[in-house]
UniProtKB/TrEMBL annotation:
Protein's name in the database: Sugar ABC transporter
SUPFAM superfamilies attached to this UniProt entry: Periplasmic binding protein-like II (SSF53850)
Localisation per UniProt entry: Periplasm
Lineage of the species this protein comes from: Bacteria, Pseudomonadati, Pseudomonadota, Alphaproteobacteria, Hyphomicrobiales
Record-linked Pfam families: SBP_bac_8
Signal peptide span: 1-28
């Protein structure tokens, strides 16, 4: 497959997208559809429940669910791709979408739009995000953005007044350092996680400094100065006592289990995730969480973007693509199913679904929706998905950042090492 260009929406599908009435499809008895996603206990419970709903409404179809934690999901998926036995429907993230399109693991959905797949009520931004090189590959199952989640009780106990001492939508790293130290002094709990090894935060910081994480030609955007400044910025917060000690943070580098987060275990008052994870984190806590943007530089240039939290995609190995895409369509349109899914995967991209959910939102979900309302117009433009090799670059960043947290090597030395490796990875990908 040739090199992909920036996403462009396939204009010839316009008439199909306008279709609002979808015919009821009939399938052969015992038509099987497999759905594979990365999850957590809360997501898994909801997803298996909607599979049961779908099966009860479509007796000729048998959808089955498969799930793994994020750390193991892509490893198994790689094995399935090699073996030619991928499930019909797989969950995908925006950051790796291009790689799975490039290797042919997922296939376009255009032939099913207006037939088994209804996207007539989807936000155009969501459709555009799933469109690559003029073809529609990925169905958004929720919008998402970077979010800082903070323990409101600890902030209150430290005298940090929301909206005064701390503006959740406009604060700098210097302000965060002061707030984090104040929380530690008042409560004994570190005011914030240490994001030295957090690639999401680094990506925002790069944009805030006027660069791109990946340039249009696929080359790496951050400079030596940006990498050094990022690690030095978090080093300053750590040295002030605002984060857990370096070795503790190093031990959590790359950990994706929500139960191990410092804000859940009580070792920190603030953590940094994707906004769709707020519901899952809140479910593990007694204290109430608040939501904020990621910290910023003094210039207050937006770094985060609004993007699909996850997609569902049709794989090349599907033996029943019409049945699979009909299930995908119900996953984002059926009000009984979407009521169960709620906002756990992000803000739904279907306007009717959002309206139907509003009266029954939990307190955590209301925090998430309010956050999305308040970040409108305060985010960066959505870039093209990262190039092949981006996942390895991220893993390299995390691994080398651990040596910074442990004080094994100087920041300039590690920054040079990281950039050399990142460029080599992208060059051979």
């Amino acid at each position: 497959m040739g090199k992909f260009t920036r996403r462009t929406f396939l204009s010839v599908t316009g008439s199909a997208i306008a279709l609002s009435a979808m015919p009821r499809l009939a399938f052969a008895e015992d038509t099987a559809v497999r759905h594979f996603w990365w999850g957590n206990p809360e997501r898994d419970k909801r997803t298996f429940a909607v599979i049961d709903i779908y099966n009860s409404k479509n007796p000729g179809v048998k959808v089955s669910g498969e799930t793994l934690g994020f750390a193991d999901y892509f490893t198994k998926l790689t094995t399935q791709i090699a073996g030619g036995n991928m499930p019909d429907v797989i969950q995908q993230g925006y950051g790796v979408l291009f790689e799975y399109i490039a290797n042919g693991a997922v296939v376009p959905l255009d032939d099913y739009v207006g037939k088994s797949l209804d996207i007539s009520k989807m936000d155009q931004s969501a459709i555009d995000a799933g469109t690559v090189d003029g073809k529609f590959y990925a169905l958004s199952i929720g919008a998402n953005s970077h979010m800082a989640m903070y323990n409101t009780r600890l902030f209150e106990e430290a005298g940090v007044n929301i909206g005064e001492t701390f503006d959740p939508y406009a604060y700098t790293y210097d302000q965060l350092k002061d707030i984090a130290k104040a929380i530690k002094d008042a409560t004994g709990v570190a005011g914030t996680d240490d994001n030295t090894a957090d690639y999401q935060n680094f990506s925002d910081f790069t944009v805030q400094k006027g660069a791109n994480l990946y340039n249009e030609d696929g080359s790496y955007g951050p400079t030596q100065e940006i990498v050094e400044e990022y690690w030095s910025t978090w080093g300053s917060i750590r040295d002030a006592g605002g984060t857990p000690p370096g070795p503790e943070s190093a031990a959590l580098a790359g950990v994706s289990e929500l139960s191990q987060l410092g804000v859940v275990t009580g070792k920190s008052a603030m953590t940094y995730l994707w906004s769709n994870q707020l519901v899952g984190v809140q479910g593990l806590m007694q204290d109430t969480l608040g939501a904020a943007v990621y910290p910023n530089t003094p210039d207050m240039i937006p770094g985060s973007v609004i993007q699909p939290s996850q997609f569902v995609c049709l794989t090349r190995d599907s033996a029943n693509p019409e049945a699979a895409t009909a299930y995908m369509s119900a996953f984002v349109n059926d009000l009984d199913m979407t009521k169960v899914l709620g906002l756990e995967r992000g803000i739904p991209s279907n306007a009717d679904v959002r309206a139907a959910l509003e009266p029954d939102l939990s307190p955590a979900e209301k925090v998430s929706v309010d956050f999305f309302d308040k970040i409108q117009g305060k985010t960066a433009a959505l870039p093209a998905p990262p190039p092949a090799g981006a996942g390895e670059v991220e893993q390299t960043f995390e691994r080398l950042a651990v040596s910074v947290l442990l004080g094994e090597r100087s920041i300039p030395e590690v920054a040079t090492d990281f950039l050399n490796q990142a460029k080599a990875i992208l060059a051979r990908a």
